[in-house]
């Protein structure tokens, strides 16, 4: 059987000549049988040939695990031809998950101690490719000795192997610290590049190594300046840029060494300015060096002028014809907009032009950056640009664009009228894409602006008459017409064009909303309530409204039916109470991130009133309210007797109160996660009536420049607990401190055992999918005791 085995070239030719997959499998199965037989017979002269064929079969995706032990035999062979194939087989067929890889540790150690460069190179390549943590610990002294060997070939391989060892076992960093300083003086390109990479790995994993290598910053600066100004050998130049790979690696190392270190940053400031001004940007290699220079400038404590230069380089990247370079520039500017807002603002026109890029990823990045650039001085111009983009942007960007415009308007609106007009335009253009809280926010805004009630109701009536397909717009319009319908008919608003509206027209429009197939049940509920309110706002006969309520009294939707029945009862049984029940809502005080001058003045007045002593009667009544609140809304609860206005009697009555259990102290909140502006906080409540129940509210806030989308929070507890996750308030955490996202966790702890919580977060941020899994062990003892 062995004699009829094919040579490697013949096997490749026969496999490539197979016309079907079945023929290919037949050829491979037949040859694998020959290879197995050869391994069993122990043919030492042809073992490396058989293993070579098996490796080719493995590269095609067929099982080849039965050749693992043959690899070990060939590695132990004294012949170089056997060792070469054996080490290649070990790199392909062995890994850390298999115990067999530990059997070659002694063979690698023996080969490293030999003086044959080719054999040492094979052993080092294998160790760097599949060496486990145990192998790295055993062989680290041998690799350290080879770092100072006279052969450049062996030293280069040893440096790369040391990089692998540090990644596998970071505690080995002390072994490789002394040779690195000496290797930095090497002029060999491969050794110098590997040494810089090794020092980078050491500094990222060891604070002691970071402090140690800050002494070599001047040497690194000198090396990079030589590369930039005088260049090196032509064989390492790429498109006229002198050794860009080494330049990029040195810049990365300088970024790590200069981070949060004033002296090191000062040493490299002049060099970074030279690299930024002398690098050719006509080729991609030069752009790579420039981009790494920008990252280094922004990460160290660089001068203000140097940071402006870095932002200007990114601005030039935005004008590049390569879409990848423009995407990198937009992503980098988005990260810098918080720290260097004024410098990034200079490139706002170019960023806005990128909104209309045909590439969806570029357009999304430009949208995120444009929203981050909005402030109080440019809110009108930027909002106009974003609204123009909203009208023609792809559907997958409309939700983000609409939400971003609403948030920007809420934070930086110059006037309430402009704020209302902006929201109305967004609802008219992309009403179906806005967040769920947009309707409530606009209703609250209109309700708090008494001087704009007539203007708002006329604008909304005109928009509703033109289009009833945008459900959020229809809901706001129905609420506003029901609340301020009398102002609509008066026609006294001077800020809009004259509009003559009759009562029948208003009722017909609301009935049209009720009958439309596009109207959601919630929208029909708004319309029903609006009709009911108009029965007190508009003068005349209400038979038409009563008829509509009677029709919806038998509606299939339970909520609409209940609402219509209750309104019918108001007409028939409690008509004398209808005007009082349906009177206008009081002015709503708007709260949010934007605080206008009136709010500031009212806050100051409130502070002054708090500083002044309150009347005794007011103090007593507030004490009663506080006791009622703590005792809960139970109907059978006995209220304490009314307090006497005099201070002395108040104290006596307090002492006469029945002894009640002290309310539990509030449980402190806990911050459990923070990354790139996204923060997760836990707040705790234990209901007094159920001591074994714990309510945890997960609150996610986002202070970065980009929205956190597709946010999912999952939790797990030990088996002795019972966990129930409520639905979250949404899956998007708006940028720049927008409304937080909340989710309620109900945990039942019948044994009152110490609580441990494991959380998994998945979300998209700055175009990247992120998944974080962590355990919360530092929960307050009040959550379970």
UniProtKB/TrEMBL annotation:
Entry-linked SMART domains: Alpha_adaptinC2
Pfam families: Adaptin_N, Alpha_adaptinC2
Membrane topology: Peripheral membrane protein
Disordered, as annotated region: 592-614
Keyword Protein transport: yes
InterPro entries reported in the protein's UniProt record: Adaptor_Complx_Large_Subunit, AP1_complex_gsu, ARM-like, ARM-type_fold, Clathrin/coatomer_adapt-like_N, Clathrin_a/b/g-adaptin_app_Ig, Clathrin_app_Ig-like_sf, GAE_dom
Entry protein name: AP-1 complex subunit gamma
Organism field: Bos mutus grunniens (Wild yak)
Gene name linked to the record: AP1G2
């Amino acid at each position: 059987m062995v004699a009829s085995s094919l040579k490697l070239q013949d096997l490749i030719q026969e496999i490539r000549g197979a016309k079907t997959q079945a023929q290919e499998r037949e050829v491979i199965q037949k040859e694998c049988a020959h290879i197995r037989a050869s391994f069993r017979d122990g043919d030492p002269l042809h073992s490396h040939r058989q293993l070579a064929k098996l490796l080719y079969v493995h590269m095609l995706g067929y099982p080849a695990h039965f050749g693992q032990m043959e690899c070990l035999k060939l590695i132990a062979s004294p012949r170089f031809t056997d060792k070469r194939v054996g080490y290649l087989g070990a790199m392909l067929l062995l890994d850390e998950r298999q115990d067999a890889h530990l059997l070659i540790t002694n063979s690698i150690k023996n080969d490293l101690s030999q003086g044959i460069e080719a054999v040492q190179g094979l052993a080092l390549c294998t160790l760097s490719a599949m060496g486990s943590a145990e192998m790295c610990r055993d062989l680290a002294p041998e690799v350290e000795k080879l770092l100072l060997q006279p052969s450049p070939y062996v030293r280069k391989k040893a440096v790369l192997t040391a990089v692998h060892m540090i990644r596998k076992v970071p505690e080995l960093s002390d072994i490789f610290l002394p040779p690195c300083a000496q290797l930095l003086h090497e002029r060999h390109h491969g050794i110098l590049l590997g040494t810089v990479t090794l020092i980078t790995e050491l500094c990222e994993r060891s604070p002691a190594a970071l402090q140690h290598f800050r002494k070599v910053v001047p040497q690194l600066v000198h090396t990079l300046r030589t590369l930039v100004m005088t260049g090196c050998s032509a064989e390492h130049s790429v498109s006229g840029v002198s050794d860009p790979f080494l330049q990029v690696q040195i810049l990365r190392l300088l970024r790590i060494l200069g981070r949060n270190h004033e002296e090191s940053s000062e040493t490299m400031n002049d060099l970074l300015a030279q690299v930024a001004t002398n690098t050719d940007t006509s080729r991609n290699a030069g752009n790579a060096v420039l981009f790494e220079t920008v990252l280094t400038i922004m990460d160290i404590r660089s001068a203000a002028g140097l940071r402006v230069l870095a932002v200007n380089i990114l601005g030039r990247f935005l004008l590049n014809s390569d879409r990848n370079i423009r995407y990198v520039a937009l992503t980098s500017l988005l990260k810098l907009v918080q720290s260097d807002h004024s410098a990034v603002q200079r490139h706002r026109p170019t960023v806005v032009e990128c909104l209309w890029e045909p590439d969806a990823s570029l357009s999304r990045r430009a949208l995120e950056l444009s929203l981050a650039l909005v402030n109080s001085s440019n809110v009108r111009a930027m909002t106009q640009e974003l609204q123009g983009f909203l009208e023609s942007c792809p559907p997958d960007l409309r939700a983000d664009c609409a939400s971003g415009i609403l948030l920007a308007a809420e934070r930086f609106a110059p006037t309430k009228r402009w704020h209302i007009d902006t929201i109305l335009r967004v609802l008219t253009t992309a009403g179906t894409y806005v967040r769920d809280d947009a309707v409530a926010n606009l209703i609250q805004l209109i309700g708090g602006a008494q001087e704009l009630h007539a203007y708002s109701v006329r604008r909304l009536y005109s928009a509703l008459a033109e289009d009833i397909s945008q459900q959020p717009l229809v809901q706001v319009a129905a609420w506003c017409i029901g609340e301020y319908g009398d102002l609509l008919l008066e026609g006294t608003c001077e800020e809009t064009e004259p509009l003559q509206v009759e009562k029948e027209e208003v009722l017909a429009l609301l009935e049209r909303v009720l009958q439309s197939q596009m109207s959601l049940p919630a929208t029909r509920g708004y319309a029903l309530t609006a009709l009911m309110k108009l029965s007190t706002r508009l003068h005349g006969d209400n038979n038409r409204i009563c008829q509509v309520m009677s029709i919806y009294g038998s509606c299939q939707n339970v909520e609409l039916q209940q609402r219509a029945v209750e309104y019918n009862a108001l007409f028939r049984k409690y008509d004398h109470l209808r005007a009082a029940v349906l009177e206008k809502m009081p002015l709503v005080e708007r709260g949010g991130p934007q605080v206008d001058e009136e709010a500031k003045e009212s806050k100051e007045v409130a502070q002054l009133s708090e500083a002044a002593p309150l009347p005794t009667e007011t103090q007593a009544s507030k004490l009663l309210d506080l006791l009622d609140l703590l005792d809960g809304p139970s109907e059978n609860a006995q209220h304490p007797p009314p307090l006497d206005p005099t201070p002395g009697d108040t104290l006596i009555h307090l002492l006469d109160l029945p002894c009640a259990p002290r309310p539990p102290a509030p449980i402190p909140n806990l911050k459990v996660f923070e990354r790139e502006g996204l923060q997760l906080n836990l707040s705790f409540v234990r209901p007094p009536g159920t001591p074994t129940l714990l309510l945890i509210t997960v609150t996610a806030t986002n202070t970065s420049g980009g929205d956190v989308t597709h946010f999912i929070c999952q939790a797990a507890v030990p088996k002795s607990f019972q966990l129930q996750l409520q639905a979250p308030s949404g899956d998007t955490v708006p940028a720049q401190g927008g409304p937080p996202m909340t989710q309620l966790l109900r945990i039942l702890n019948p044994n009152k055992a110490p609580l441990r919580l494991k959380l998994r977060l998945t979300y998209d941020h700055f175009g990247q999918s992120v998944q974080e899994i962590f355990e919360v062990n530092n929960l307050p003892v009040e959550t379970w005791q």
